[in-house]
Design brief:
By secondary structure, the protein is mainly alpha-helical.
Length: about 60
């Protein structure tokens, strides 16, 4: 069963998603694969996905250094 968080304005990434998917977030190389895994559990709105994408890009920038 999926959990609906699309209506929330708070930071669901660090409060809900990251604790469950930290390993996938840190070690997965493909954002699409990561979003598929998260989508199996959570329903998010476009702004929430954009926020997650921002953090994904920041992770990639750090790993490039």
């Amino acid at each position: 069963m999926k959990t609906y968080y699309a209506h929330l304005k708070e930071d669901v990434f660090y409060k809900k998603i990251y604790p469950l998917f930290a390993k996938e977030f840190l070690f997965e190389n493909d954002f699409g694969t990561f979003t598929e895994k998260v989508s199996e559990v959570f329903i998010l709105n476009p702004e929430q996905w954009e926020y997650i994408l921002e953090h994904w890009r920041n992770k990639e920038l750090i790993l490039e250094k």
